[in-house]
Amino acid sequence: MLGDKNIAPDRLLSSAEALRKQKKRVLLIGLDAATFDLVAPMLKGGSLPNLQSLIKAGSSGTLLSTIPDLSPVAWSSFATGKNAGKHGIFSFVVSKPRSYEISLANAGLRRAEAFWRILSRRGRKVGVVNMPFSYPPEEVNGYLVCGMDAPGTSSDYTYPKELKSEIKELLGDYTIDYSFVGSLERENREEILRRLFEAEKKRLQLSLHLMRKFDWDLFFVVFVALDRVQHFFWHLMEPNHPLYDEAGAERFREAIPEMYVKMDQLVGRLLEAIDEDTYVVVMSDHGAGPFDNSVPYLNLNDFFVEKGYLSLKSSGAKGEIASLLRGSRALLRKHLSPKMKERLKALLPGAREWMQSFTYFSGIDWEKTKAYATYDEIMSRGVRLNLKGREPQGVVRPGEEYEEFREELVQTLSQLQHPLTGLPIVDRVYRREELYHGECLEQAPDLFVFWNDHAYFCGNALLDKSKYREVKRPGRQFKLTEIQRSGEHRRNGVLIVKGAGVNSEFAFESADIMDVIPTVFYLLGEAVPEDMDGKVLTNIIAGDYLLRRPVSFSSERGEVRSPPPEQVYTEDEAEVVEERLRNLGYIE
């Protein structure tokens, strides 16, 4: 029933206007990588009482992540309500225009406005804690504490700046992101898990402090522990996982479920700090599932060499030089003082970017190369065509030749099979315009490979022998990664919404991650910017409530930000962030 039909239209309008003027608050909680695949059975067992209470009192369902479901893309699409073709973040790194060089992605490169800027401009008070890809911090009507793309607590990672010293005084050591892969061993797993949760408890303590000290209309905090523990402990939970370790499972079989219980407890603490009139939204940027990195991996660049799409220079010396440079970079990072690094940078401007690009794309004969896999992360997905007029030594002509060759790549990649099982390993190959639209579309790779269940390991570093070991299989040899990464992202995240007007005990099939912020705007009583790609999830709103308080839109277009004139990181900061991403297994 949609409401009393006897109510006059003018009274309905005045009622809607009155509702909009009432002050609404939203507590938005991010549980990075949470999935109903694990949450659902735990709810049945009663081990997640706080999430259970929210689900019972509100609406819940699967939240579909972006393609690809990488954190920088997903969180940026969430924060802006826009697709990557409008915000311009497609991976952990960005390709420099008219160059084969790459640099680290961060929020400084995001072209579209995030929700905290829009709400601040409208006079709403916002608090943001640990939002991934929010560095450098922007001025807001409230406070902002940056997440994983911030170099560290020595940087200016907060707004206002003085909040940084307040955090130090309150918590002592504050951990932006605890990356532990470089030190993960069987003997120290217990300590790793303890430190991971300690970092999250401090994040909760900071959040409660800020929620009590400052007035706010929207408070948002992200907890990342589920993502980290699922990446590296999944094989200890499932006996049928190829990397299953019985000795490790005896102690850590429950490591992932226990972290879900702990995250539920943190959610409960946050719920205690709000009143019944506050809306609660719990979401994840993507889900998670098992990942078999024991199977032979396909290196796209090696595959392109085999197919004749990528050409190498005749001498193998380039690969050897690349390995030497990679080792040299590690030594320089470890042994040079900050002052010496800055002096070296002044003497050799651009040397770091050159070395980085050289070590990843060394030995390529660009004048004979038509396609290459971009350096986006270990699970390589992006493919760029060496386009004439766009790349420095492009060979593929724009127009008909570009489209014909791109179609050839789509067909070739779509037919890839597992070398042992013969099963298809590619779910679909997308042209970039099939996924994105907007002013940043031209920055995207030309193609995106979506692997079946993310279960087929793919690399992209050309001819890099240093990080792989050879394993003999019948008929041929395959290279296996040494990184014990046993869990990987899935598109199916979680969304739970509870509050006045929200249908209770209502399960919806799926929503898009871009729908979260438009829905939050609606709950706050704010007009939704028309240029957002996401939509308000009206299916979770009770019909009579929606009639009295219809969705409103604003023609206000968010600021299209210009890229910064130079990299926002110093040399040392870039090294810190790069090492963090490498330790998390996100880049090679």
Folded structure, characterized:
The protein is α/β, with parallel strands linked by helices and 588 residues long. The chain has 2 domains: 26-291 and 493-583, Alkaline Phosphatase, subunit A (3-Layer(aba) Sandwich), CATH 3.40.720; 298-487, no CATH class. It has 20 helices and 23 strands. The strands form 7 sheets. The protein has a 9-stranded mixed β-sheet with strand order 7-6-5-8-1-9-20-2-21, sandwiched between helices. Helix 8 (189-213) runs parallel beside helix 11, helix 9 (225-233) packs antiparallel against helix 11 and helix 13 (317-335) crosses helix 15. The longest helix has 25 residues, at 189-213. The radius of gyration is 24 Å and the shape is globular. The model is unreliable at 1-17, 316-336, 354-359 and 460-483 (pLDDT under 50).
| Number of E-type strands | 23
Would you state the CATH class of the largest domain?
A: Alpha Beta
Radius of gyration based on Cα positions? 24 Å
Q: Can you give the helix content as a percent range?
A: 25-40%
The secondary-structure class comes to: alpha/beta
What is the overall number of helices? 20
Sequence stretches where pLDDT stays below 50 over 5 or more residues:
1-17, 316-336, 354-359, 460-483
Q: Profile the largest sheet.
A: 9 strands, mixed
Question: What's this, in brief?
Answer:
This protein is 37% helix and 17% strand.
